[in-house]
Amino acid sequence: MFSRLSTRLTVLYAALFGVVLLVVSVAVFGAISGAAQRQVRAELAATGTVFDRVWSLRSERLREGASLLSRDFGFRAAAATGDAPTIESALENLRSRMGVDHAFMVDAAGQIVGASFAPDDQARLAKAFETADDPSGVFRLAGEPYQLVSAPVLSPELIGWVVFAERLDETEMQALEKLAAIPLDAMVLNRAAGGAWTNAHAPAELNSAAVRQMVERSLKGGAAAPQDLRLKSGRTVALVKPLPSLEPGGGAVLLLRYPLALALAPYEPLLLIVGLLGAAGLAVVSWGSWALARSVTRPISELDEAAHRLQRGEDAHVEVNGEDEIGRLASSFNTMAAEIRERERKITHQAMHDDDTGLPNRHALERLVGGLTDVPQGQVYVCALGLDRFHHMRHALGHKLSAQAVRMVGNRLGGLAPTCGVARIASDMLGFVLIADGEAAALEDMARLLVSLEQPVRVQGEPIDVALSLGLAPLEGEDVAASIERASIAVDQARAARSKTAVFDAEAYGDPAANLSLMSNLLTGILQEQLVLWHQPKFDMRKNAVTGTEALVRWNHPVRGMIFPDVFITMAEETGHIRALTEWVVRRAIAEQRVMAEAGYELSVAVNISGRVLGEPDFIDFARDALKDAVGRICFEITETAVIENPAVALAMLDAFADMGVSISIDDYGSGLSSLAYLKQIRGHELKLDRSIVADVTGSQRDALIVRSTIDLAHSLGLKVVAEGIETDACFSVLAGMGCDMAQGYLIARPQPIEKLLEFLAESREQARPQSRKRRA
To answer: How many other C-beta atoms are found inside a 10 Å radius of the C-beta of residue 123?
Structure first.
């Protein structure tokens, strides 16, 4: 009959309590006051529960976003190498998409990348990440509280954290207040240095001892329940919700409060009527109170139960009966629950799909493969489909159209194998699942798929040819992510073998974790003198004597024994350790050249210089300082590839080396695409023929012709010619007849440490011709 709860209460009390209110006025006042307090407490508790859910959902959203970025291979590689621009770009991209206030990275040393804060804030933040096991929670930045959520970046060891921060300002508190049915006040309090709980925007009365005692009492009790709080403005009911804090020695709470005066205001007319009418019957009052309590508490209980279901992640819906305050509260709760479900659906979709193509992503593929529990062991294969030369396609078509091409290939694959679960697992790679009776059957199925998949795709009406490579890895155990990674590696192995398909070869892949551990010990090995220098003699065919050596580094590892350069040199170039290694080799080569000179052997010493080092102009300063101690000619051996990567810088450095008196040797000539254009620009003194064109010079007229013409060309350019890999007397004689200047190889001598080299040099003085020497063991 009445649409408002206050009206129904007024009419009910006026009709039923009229004759008895004078007798029981004190009791009724106490009952009304208690009911108001209970209602406020229930609303505060319900709002606190809703806040817990909202906080949890937002934390999960931020953590999922941070985890997606921290597990991204390109981001981890940029973090591992300290590539700040790439890190900042990735953080800003994800920050803008997720709408957070700050996104940055804290590395293992406590340095912040991607954001700038006050020095004091940066120091406290670094200390917090250094001491916290899970660095997430409330943290003050510029005096304002922020919610920080982080995810570790592993490669595979911890190298930092991806951090998202959202400000807990008045806007956030107002949004929380709107979720409550009563106009409560919400505020985040932080523990100050003296122990007080404060907020820069809080009223002065909240900085009182009563607030501090209530907060400490709530935290000590461990249970979040509404409490009475007496302030200067009057009596209020307050609820303290502890918040996870990242502040070292600090703390944070959410304070929800509601004045009792506002809760009792609707009952003032009723109390006036009760006071005037006086002595009414206790039975009528009891019956009326029971009817009121029943009509009020039933929907509140239903709302409380629905809030708990929502907290557990279940579907929560409350039947709306009536259009009063409780009915509107139930309707608001249903709307909030529906919005939360929709938000979760969108977050889940974003977490499981690729933004560029709309295809499922790696996480979706992992979930699909993990759900194949009913397939017999050994019949599930994870496949990776790589688009060859994708980076060239993206450069030619642009990011959007190349992503469209990937989507079309994925849709085609989904049409050919609807149950395979196509997902984009990398920018140029799709992943899917194959069920087959054995490896041979799987390879046959993959070969059949390739025939249809490599048909041109039409992008905006234009046909685009696609070349594909397929990698296969059996699902082993429950480690789905590792199987996907192995399939991706199999694609690279197929490309390296110039094959369309390949099964993951663990032996060929090796042990990256062990290699990474080896690289982390390289600098220690240099400092602890674990590295040794071996020399391979260079024989002058015209002087019929050894006139130089090539310095080759070896690593005498305390655990793994003698490690040869083909194991660690390439990795040193990729990890940035090659500069320190090169400097050590140059200094040691100069020192051992002095040892040879003191023994009576004036030999030139050649050192291999990496292309990475040629890209660092300050290496010239090191070389100039180190060469002051040289007692003979020092030769730097470089490859044409090193020059081609950065010709302007490399050629300038080679000119500087030549001006210092360093001989330049062009190494590995003939092993790749040798360029005459660069050959004439390099101020070289020596040309080293690679063993690949020297090995068959006695058996192939074509190789002999190439070698002869190369020797003539080098001599015309004023270069001496060194032949590598000479192992037979016949090869030596043929090269000598062609006019080759110097020989290097096992026929002359194997690489050997300085002690053995000195013995060899002493013996070589007694030899008339190197052709009479046997191959040294």
So the answer is: 12
Nearest CA to 316 out of 306, 330, 324, 303 is that of 306
pLDDT category, 500, cuts 50, 70, 90? Answer: confident
590 pLDDT band, cuts 50/70/90, is very high
Q: Interior CA angle at 138 toward 134 and 142, to 5°?
A: 125
Per-residue pLDDT tens over the stretch 111-151:
888 888 888 888 888 888 888 777 888 888 887 888 888 88
Report cis status (omega within 30 of 0) of the bond before 156.
Answer: yes
Distance between alpha carbon 276 and the CA centroid of its chain, in Å? 74
Residues 249 and 451: their CA atoms lie apart, in Å, by: 64
Look up residue 640 and give its two tokens: 């044409």
What is the largest distance, in Å, between two alpha-carbon atoms of the chain? Answer: 138
| Strand-pair category, 720-723 with 742-743 | parallel
Backbone phi, psi, residue 336, to 5°: -60, -45
User: DSSP letters of 28-96?
Assistant: HHHHHHHHHHHHHHHHHHHHHHHHHHHHHHHHHHHHHHHHHHHH-HHHHHHHHHT-HHHHHHHHHHHHH
Q: Considering only CA atoms, which of 165, 68, 158 is closest in space to residue 114?
A: 165
Contact status, residue 662 vs residue 623, Cβ threshold 8 Å: yes
Nearest to 623 by CA among 634, 639, 638: 634
d(CA 668, CA 428) in angstroms, rounded, equals 33
Q: Pairing between strand 634-639 and 604-608?
A: parallel
User: Are 277 and 22 contacting, i.e. CB atoms less than 8 angstroms apart?
Assistant: yes
Taking the C-alpha atoms of residue 677 and residue 642, their distance in angstroms, rounded to an integer, is 14
Question: Is the pLDDT score of 280 beyond 70?
Answer: no
Please name which of 325, 408, 420 lies closest in space to residue 375, comparing C-alpha atoms: 420
Alpha carbons 278 and 20: distance in angstroms, whole number: 6
Q: Residue 117: what are its φ and ψ, rounded to 5°?
A: -125, 170
Is residue 364's pLDDT more than 60? yes
CA torsion, ordered 765, 767, 771, 775, to nearest 10 deg: -80
User: Is the Cβ–Cβ distance between 5 and 326 less than 8 Å?
Assistant: yes
- List all residues 6 or more positions away from 163 whose beta carbon is below 8 Å from its beta carbon: 66, 102, 103, 104, 105, 106, 135, 148, 149, 150
**275 dihedral zone (left: phi>0; alpha: psi -120 to 50; beta):** alpha
The shares of helix, strand and coil residues in the chain, as percent rounded to the nearest 5, are 50, 20, 25
pLDDT tens by residue, 20-46: 555 566 676 777 777 777 777 787 778
Stronger pLDDT, 381 or 314, i.e. the higher one:
381
Q: What is the percent of the chain with per-residue pLDDT over 90, rounded to a whole number?
A: 16
Contact 235, 257 (CB under 8 A): no
Tell me the H-state helices in 353-429: 362-370, 390-397, 399-416
Q: Strands 752-753, 279-280: parallel, antiparallel or unpaired by DSSP?
A: unpaired
556 beta partners: 562
Average pLDDT over residues 566-570: 75
How far is it, in rounded angstroms, from Cα 289 to Cα 13?
9
- 83 token code pair: 């590539």
- Report the C-alpha gap between 200 and 145 in whole angstroms: 10
| Beta-sheet pairing, 604-608 with 423-426 | unpaired
Across-strand partners of 150? 163
Backbone angles phi, psi at 654, to 5 degrees: -65, -35
In the DSSP assignment, the letter for residue 163 is: E
Which secondary structure element, helix H or strand E, spans residue 744, and what is its range?
none
Beta bridge mates, 528: none
CA distance 165 to 112: 13
- CA 162 – CA 153 distance, rounded (Å): 7
Nearest to 581 by CA among 518, 635, 624, 538: 518
Question: If pLDDT is split at 50, 70 and 90, which confidence band does 277 have?
Answer: low
Q: How many CB atoms lie within 10 A of CB 434?
A: 24
